[in-house]
Design brief:
Number of strands: 10
Radius of gyration: 23 Å
Shape: globular
Number of helices: 10
Helix content: 40-55%
């Protein structure tokens, strides 16, 4: 009698938990499909925004700016110094790294990376000087895109763009519920790729959280409770910030020419440590306000066009919510 009761209990428990697993997977799929459908329209809007911003960049040479002659001279020299770094380079490498961007129950970095990839590979429009387009994906390495360009001095170069993101799925809840070792393994791989890029590439763009000033972060956020991140942990450890500073100091062939930190209040969190660092980047873009993915998208055509056109728009603010910083080692790069 007891055995029969136990068998029925086990059978009921097996069926019940099996039902919960199937129902959970169904809900996750519905949520995932809903978000993908919702963000496909977001992708189209974002790409349209980037294209419109690119047209504005292409028209910069036709605009008049009220700059003093001394300011014009300083900016002209800065531009010349900047491109001296690339005079003998046939391949220019640009890394775009997304941090783990957790928003509520979602991980948006997987979506943002797909949006930028779609933007890079979009066809070039006829009869227009459209530069950020027509990139070819690598047949060997996923997340690698390249394009051959001709600079104004008629020299040809190959521009390679590397895109990395850490999230396993678009759902933060799923990434945390799966064996966390799988998510942590991918996060660590992207972190190591980011560190390597800071040591070797020509431009690095980071797009993501800086976790209360702790620096770039590629892992799911450490939580103090169900609703709040562990701000004290990040303020105390600053692991991501140390990664950036140590990697920049480890560069062997001069300083990093261009660094972009598209993060909330990155001027407050990043600019000071960069300025005091032993080997700061030649130039960096930071912002002094709260930012969102939609605000951040115009930075991609702005930065990529510098390398695709071989011309730098250093005689005006890049865009209204970003700040261009030049560091003390700029003059030394002429040699």
């Amino acid at each position: 009698m007891i055995n029969q009761v136990l068998r029925r209990f086990y059978l009921f428990g097996f069926c019940f938990f099996g039902f919960l697993s199937i129902a959970g997977a169904f809900v996750d799929d519905r949520l995932r499909n809903y978000r993908i459908s919702e963000y496909q329209s977001f992708q189209n809007v974002a790409i349209g925004s980037m294209k419109e911003h690119e047209k504005r960049i292409l028209g910069l040479s036709d605009r008049s700016f009220s700059l003093s002659q001394s300011s014009q001279l300083v900016n002209q020299l800065a531009c010349q110094n900047f491109f001296m770094v690339f005079k003998d380079k046939q391949v220019i490498q640009i890394g775009i790294f997304f941090g783990y961007i957790n928003e509520k129950i979602y991980a948006l970095d997987i979506l943002l990376a797909a949006t930028v990839e779609k933007y890079l590979t979009s066809p070039c429009e006829l009869n227009q000087q459209n530069f950020v387009c027509g990139f070819s994906p690598s047949v060997i390495d996923s997340g690698v895109f390249s394009k051959n360009v001709t600079w104004p001095d008629r020299t040809q170069r190959k521009v390679e763009v590397f895109i990395e993101f850490p999230a396993l799925t678009i759902l933060d809840t799923v990434n945390r519920r799966q064996p966390l070792a799988a998510q942590n393994k991918k996060s660590e791989a992207v972190r190591q790729a980011f560190i390597a890029a800071l040591k070797t590439m020509d431009a690095v763009i980071y797009d993501g959280h800086v976790r209360y000033g702790g620096g770039p972060d590629f892992f799911p956020e450490k939580m103090r409770n169900a609703d709040d991140g562990d701000d004290q942990y990040y303020k105390k450890n600053k692991a991501g910030l140390h990664d950036v500073l140590n990697a920049l100091n480890a560069r062997e062939n001069g300083s990093l020419p261009f660094l972009v930190m598209n993060s909330c209040m990155s001027e407050q969190h990043i600019h000071g440590p960069l300025q005091k660092n032993q080997k700061p980047p030649m130039m960096a873009i930071v912002n002094n306000s709260l930012t969102t993915p939609s605000k951040g998208f115009p930075i991609y055509p702005e930065v990529l066009n510098i390398f695709l056109r071989g011309q730098c728009p250093f005689d005006q603010p890049l865009i209204e919510y970003f700040l261009l910083k030049r560091y003390k080692n700029e003059d030394s790069l002429k040699n």
